[in-house]
Amino acid sequence: MSLCILAAGKTVTLTVAAFTLSWTHSVEKTHWQEDWKVTPFGLQIVEARIKGSGAGMEPPEGSVLRDGWWVYKPGMAPQRSLVLAASGATGEGWTLCTVQGCRELGKAAGDTIVLEPCGPEDSSQPR
User: Percentage of the chain surpassing pLDDT 70?
Assistant: First the structure.
């Protein structure tokens, strides 16, 4: 499978089966991480981690504290796409890591990035 990253009118294709998405909460400045798989049915979240808690960010029921992170398995169906929007309030964007390395996405306020499985010919699927 491949992951398509759509930003600023361009598409970048990564040939990966999984990725980790991380960011800092704009109000509480708490770090978040999510592990995702790229499947034919969409993007499937596998595990999520929160470094601490705060107003409106309490770890969900069933979370386990492991090495300073609240770890849990979200019960979400595969998502056709993920839309990421940067607030500009943290001084950083989203970090997307794969076996190929990491890249920062959406650092500037208002930047919108769409992540989705690529179509059969490495072009993004219609949204």
Answer: 83
